[in-house]
Design goal:
By secondary structure, the chain is of the alpha/beta class. It has 7 helices and 20 strands. It binds flavin-adenine dinucleotide and FE2/S2 (inorganic) cluster.
Length: 363
């Protein structure tokens, strides 16, 4: 997919291994780079003679600040995170794709949003919280943020300001897993015991229906998701964003069906795929056994993708015509209700009808 060189206007070290980078958006690209809270940028870079792409959530809030901001944690031995945290400086140009992702779902009535973050998972969580508090729809927000030690809290000043400016509707609970005796707050991790212990307090703090957004390591999110379900929160009200490159172990499991919004068309094994990206149409002939993304890449369609294995969410798209079979691993990052709306990941989908039309803009 097309990339744009955006200039780094500011850099701030958040803690020893994490930095925030602000990117200027030229006036003529304002509309292309408009975004929703919780979306991510795909950064492309040439590092050690190899072209690499990685996703970084926008930690800025749409409409609240100019430009874009990402907040990157250096992974031990990590190529792109190491480059962004240690080598990119103010004034440099960084190649990025336009924002994508569908972590945040608009809420049509006031909710109590419980926002769980661990470590750098605060990056998409903070703007979702700010957006909900400041959109004027009467939402309540509880941040629950787990860090190792107080010095490892990322964007803590902004979180504190948000709580201070919305004293009636916003609270933040910090947990430290490895704090020394100087820390007088809560110790430990956001686990089943913590969520079960706090749930009655969260529930009684407002009569609003609860919705949960979470971002952090997979294991933490699996536990939190199952705990909230046990406590009566339906899966459709629990949303998660994963930074981990965990492959789905869904071989042999039956595929799921996604149907387009118009006539599914004739069943068949030879398929013609039309993809809409950036307002342009691309066509590809499907070859038996391949996924839709591979067919489009083969046809040189300018589609967004990165991992090609269902972990990064870059290739999310809406099926507008036809029917596809999608690998069940799609449910790691999407809900059945998303599939019911016709959304799918192109890299996990195979055509089941002769005509397929898939729109990468309409997500
Ligand atoms: C939708 C999405 C949003 C993301 N948002 C952010 C963000 O806001 N901030 C941020 O810091 N990161 C974010 N990530 C993670 C980011 O895209 C990279 O995966 C991460 O920076 C590692 O890339 P790398 O090139 O530095 O490491 P690589 O060179 O790819 O990997 C180096 C080593 O680290 C391991 N590794 C790779 N990724 C991770 C990981 N995420 N956690 C632990 N170990 C890993 C690899 O297995 C390998 O052993 C996001 C990922 C996704 C899919
Ligand atoms: S390309 Fe990463 S999820 Fe499809």
């Amino acid at each position: 997919m097309a990339t744009y060189p955006l200039r780094i206007s500011r850099r701030r070290q958040e803690c020893d291994d994490t930095a925030s980078l602000w990117l200027d958006v030229p006036k003529d690209l304002t509309s292309a780079f408009s975004y929703r809270p919780g979306q991510f940028l795909t950064v492309e870079a040439e590092i050690d003679a190899a072209r690499v792409t990685r996703q970084y959530s926008l930690s800025s809030t749409p409409g609240k600040e100019s430009g874009l901001r990402i907040t990157v944690k250096r992974i031990e031995g990590g190529r792109v995170s190491g480059w962004l945290v240690d080598r990119v400086k103010e004034g440099d140009l960084v190649e990025v794709q336009v924002p994508r992702g569908r972590f945040f779902k608009e809420l049509d009535q006031p909710h109590h949003a419980i926002l769980l973050a661990a470590g750098s998972g605060i990056a998409p969580i903070l703007p979702i919280g700010r957006w909900l508090l400041e959109c004027g729809q009467g939402h309540r927000v509880t941040f629950v943020y787990g860090s190792r030690i107080p010095d490892a809290v990322i964007l803590g000043d902004e979180l504190a300001e948000l709580v201070a400016s919305h004293p009636e509707t916003c609270t933040a609970e910090h947990l430290m897993s490895r704090a020394d005796e100087g820390w007088s707050g809560t110790r430990g991790r956001i686990n089943r015991a913590y969520i079960e212990g706090r749930f009655a307090v969260w529930e009684s703090s407002s009569a609003l229906p609860i919705v949960v957004y979470m971002c952090g390591p997979e294991g933490f999110m699996d536990t939190a998701e199952s705990t909230f379900q046990t406590l009566g929160i339906p899966l459709e009200q629990i949303h998660r964003e994963s930074f981990d490159m965990v492959l789905s172990d869904d071989d042999g499991e039956p595929g799921l069906t996604v149907t387009g919004t118009t006539d599914p068309g004739e069943e068949g094994t030879t398929s013609r795929i039309v993809a809409v990206v950036g307002g342009e149409e691309y066509e590809a002939d499907w070859e038996e056994g391949e996924d839709i993304l591979s067919a489009l890449i083969r046809a040189k369609a300018d589609v967004p993708y990165s991992c090609q294995e269902g972990t990064c969410s870059s290739c999310i798209a809406k099926l507008t015509e036809g029917r596809v079979e999608v690998r069940p691993g799609v449910l790691r990052s999407m809900r059945q209700s998303d599939l019911d709306e016709g959304l799918t990941l192109a890299c996990l989908s195979r055509p089941r009808t002769r005509n397929i039309r898939i729109d990468f803009d309409e997500i």
